[in-house]
Amino acid sequence: MKRETPPASVDTSLLATHDLSVRVGERSLVPALSFTIRPGEFWCLLGRNGVGKTLLLHTLAGARLPAAGLLQMGGKPLADWKLDELACWRGFMPQQLHDAFATPVLDVVLQGRHPHLSRWHWEGEADHALARAALARVGLAGFEARDVRSLSGGERQRVALATLITQDPPLALLDEPLAHLDLAQQLRMLTLLQDEVRQRGRAVLMSVHDLSLAERVATHVLLLPGGGEPALAGPVAQVMQADTLSAAFDQPLRCHTLDGHRWWLPL
Ligand SMILES: Nc1ncnc2c1ncn2[C@@H]1O[C@H](COP(=O)(O)OP(=O)(O)OP(=O)(O)O)[C@@H](O)[C@H]1O
Questions:
Q1: Which residues does the chain have with pLDDT short of 50?
Q2: Does 10 map to a domain?
C-alpha cells in the first residue's frame, strides 16, 4: 500500500528565537528567550531603564551576537542570510540617530530603497515616488530639500520612520520610536504602524515606555522583568496584568478604563 507523504510544515514565522540569551559583560540581561513573531502581529517590548531592551533589539536585528541560543528569520538561522537579503527582510530604527554630513531629507529617506537596488543602480522614479509618499505619510511633505541636520528631534524621528516605510520590510524593529514625538505625532506614528500590520500583514516589535499606548496598539507584549528573570512573551491581555507590570517596573500600577481605552497609572 502506498504511504501518504505528510505535507511539509510551512514556517510562517518572520522571527523566532530559541533559548536566546543576551549578556553584557558578566551580567545576564535576557536569559533563554524563546518567542516567535508572525505576520500581522504588533509586539511592544517593555521593561524599566537599563533592563536590556536596546541590546535585545540590536541582537534580534543581527547587529550583535547572542551569548547563547538560536535566532531565525523566516525559518532560517541568521548566519545563513546574505546581508542584502536580510536588509530587505527586517528594518531597524535605532534610538540614537547621528547625521555626520549635510544631506537632503529626501536622500536620507531614499536610503530605505538601497537594499532593494542591485549594485551600481541608482534610485529610479518609482523609488523617489515611494520616498515622497512616505514623507507625506509622516506629515513631512515639503521637507525633501531640507538639510537633515537642521531638523528638530521629533522631525528627525519622523524622517527615520519615513525611511523605514520606504524600506518596507516584512518585520520592523524600532527602539523607542515615540521618544521625541508630541502626543498627536505619537498617535500618528502608531496608527501608521498599525495600518502596516493590519492591512499589509507586516509585523512590528518596538520598545516603548508608555504602557497605555502599548496597550492601545499591541497584539503581543514582550516584558523584560530584569534581575536575571526570564522574559514574559505572549498576547497583550496575558502579559499586561497589574501585578506582573508592578513587579517589573518596581512601582505599584493600576489600569483604569476610560473612553474605551485602558490607561495604566502609578499608585
Ligand atoms: N557597551 C556596554 N558596556 C557595558 N554595559 C553596557 C554597554 N551597553 C549597554 N550596557 C548596559 O546594559 C544595560 C542594558 O542597556 P540597554 O541600553 O539595552 O537598556 P534599555 O532597556 O534599552 O534602557 P532604556 O530604557 O534606558 O533605554 C544597561 O545597564 C547599560 O548600562
A1: 1-4, 6
A2: no
Q: Which atom of ligand 1 is nearest to the CA of 209?
A: 25
Whole-number Å distance between alpha carbons of 190 and 193: 5
Closest protein CA for atom 24 of ligand 1: 49
CA of 7 to the centre of ligand 1 (A): 45
Can you give the pTM of this predicted structure? 0.93
Among 69, 62, 73, residue whose Cα is nearest residue 16? 73
Report the pLDDT value the prediction gives residue 9, as an integer from 0 to 100: 58
Helix, strand, coil share (%) of the chain residues, nearest 5: 35, 25, 35
The set of cell numbers assigned to 72 is: 531565525
Domain range for 50: 15-266
List, chain by chain if needed, residues with CB within 6 Å of any ligand 1 atom: 24-25, 29, 47, 49-55
Total tally of structural domains belonging to the chain: 1
What atom of ligand 1 comes closest to residue 56's alpha carbon?
18
> What CATH number is given to the structural domain containing 131?
3.40.50.300
User: Is residue 39, in this structure, part of any structural domain at all?
Assistant: yes
User: ipTM of the assembly?
Assistant: 0.98
Could you tell me if residue 222 is inside a domain? yes
What is the pLDDT at residue 67?
96
Would 9 be classed as within a structural domain?
no
Residue (of 208, 173, 231) closest to 29 by Cα position: 231
